[in-house]
Amino acid sequence: MDLQSKETIAQYIANAGAAAWQVPQLCEGTQTRSIQKVGVIGAGTMGGGISMNFATAGIEVTIVDQNQKALDQGLGVVRGNYQRSADKGRFPQNEVESRMQRLNGQLSLQALSNCDLIIEAVFENMDLKRQIFSTLDEIAKPGAILATNTSALDIDEIASVTKRPEDFIGLHFFSPANVMKLLEIVRAEKTADDVVATCMELAKTINKIATLVGVCPGFVGNRILFARQGQGQKLLYKGVMPWDTDAAMKAFGFKMGNFQMSDLAGLDIGWSKGAKTDNPIRDALCEMDRRGQKTKAGYYDYDAARTPIPSEITEIIIKDITGVEPTHMSRDQITETCIFPMINEALKILEENKAQRPSDIDIIWLNGYGWPADKGGLMYYADMVGVKEILKKMEELGAEDPAYAPAKTLRKMAQNSSKFTKIDTGGLKTTRS
Ligand code: NAD
């Protein structure tokens, strides 16, 4: 089979998309719960976007924030988004009002007592989330699904504060939540089958592409992203400048590279003034108020049109901290260094049964992270490259840092040249399996 052929790749992606909806481990005959009213906690970046998905699909949403200002601001952003779409002719003006009428802003969690599904999207803070869910446990009606949109916190720990962990699940939307297609549905240790089935079904109603994943730091998509970003940081210590790494990622097919992505997200996520984190280059940039696009400077300088311009200041900071002179590395070498560790991490995820199947990983990266479609997906691309080449690189990177040591599966696969897209997994581990 010609893995490079456009038709073969298109067929693979179509099959992968269809497979992602299948959850073979659900008990036969599992019923879904009826979702008529949805509650969203937090009217910020994510809460607003999440609410839009439901209002657009004709479902009523009660959205709760902690004060009137935050609520007004959040609903204002939602209205602005709808208005812009109407202005572009995507739907008539009266549709803006119909959708806004489905959104009911409130200041008390008590207002969520009649909701069938409640999605929490407050600040990323474990104590706050625990507090919210222990209050909600007293308020939510029996059978309501309780969900968190956390990016990285331990969902089992959040679920443990309720007396109904079987009703608890992660719904990991991507930003902007009203636009991005991907939804990682995170099955926690005690999540009931019908809660999983309901959320998979609901994803279709709100026009998302869902994959079922398990609880681990960063779940599937971000965990693999961390592997790539980590190697980008290590390249700085070899003298490879951010713009060279980003150029290689763009040549590979990504719309933006590692460092442009960090600048867009904001370098100050997880940083506070005076902090000394394990990323001193980022710390130094933030101390200089170079916190990314929002401050018009981060790894790059930005002009008024937000064009990223390689920065002499950043180069000096990198040289000062690493003690290494800037050097040249070929695009192919940079690509291998950043992409092969993603494949290795994906194998570890499959070994831990945190994804249902290899092709789900491809669906996640195609729909949530801009993986270039002409390369099929991360696992598909791994088959294009071949296991031996990937193992060789991972042995080299693993010798530098054991966190990047070759996955057990990679070594096993190298012995019989097996295919990444054909790895047989045990499915997602549940309490029953
Ligand atoms: P945000 O700061 O934009 O919004 C948080 C909102 O929660 C604010 O409006 C705040 O007023 C409100 N809030 C705080 N405490 C509250 C309380 N006790 N009761 C009611 N409302 C309260 O944050 P965000 O970017 O929307 O992130 C929300 C969650 O989504 C976080 O857990 C984050 O990790 C996760 N997430 C974020 C992204 C992203 O790209 N921003 C992507 C995926 C997941």
Biggest β-sheet: strands ordered side by side in the sheet:
3-2-1-4-5-6-7-8
> Strand-residue fraction?
5-15%
| Cα radius of gyration in angstroms | 22 Å
Gross geometry: globular
Query: Helix share of residues?
Result: 40-55%
Structural class from helices and strands?
alpha/beta
**Mind summarizing the main beta sheet?**
8 strands, mixed
What does this structure look like?
The chain has an eight-stranded mixed β-sheet with strand order 3-2-1-4-5-6-7-8, sandwiched between helices. It has a two-stranded antiparallel ribbon with strand order 9-10. The protein starts with 5 loop residues before the first helix and ends in a 17-residue tail after the last helix. A hairpin with a 5-residue loop joins β9 and β10. The chain is α/β, with parallel strands linked by helices. The relative contact order is 0.11. The protein contains 17 helices and ten strands. Helix content is 47%, strand content 11%. The longest helix is centred in the C-terminal third of the chain and has 21 residues, at 331-351. It is globular. The protein has helices at 6-20, 45-56, 68-87, 93-101, 126-139, 155-159, 193-205, 221-236, 242-252, 258-265, 280-287, 312-322, 331-351, 358-368, 378-385, 387-400, 408-416, and strands at residues 37-41, 60-64, 103-106, 117-120, 145-148, 168-173, 182-187, 209-214, 300-302, 308-310. The site of nicotinamide-adenine-dinucleotide has 24 residues, from α2, α3 and α5.
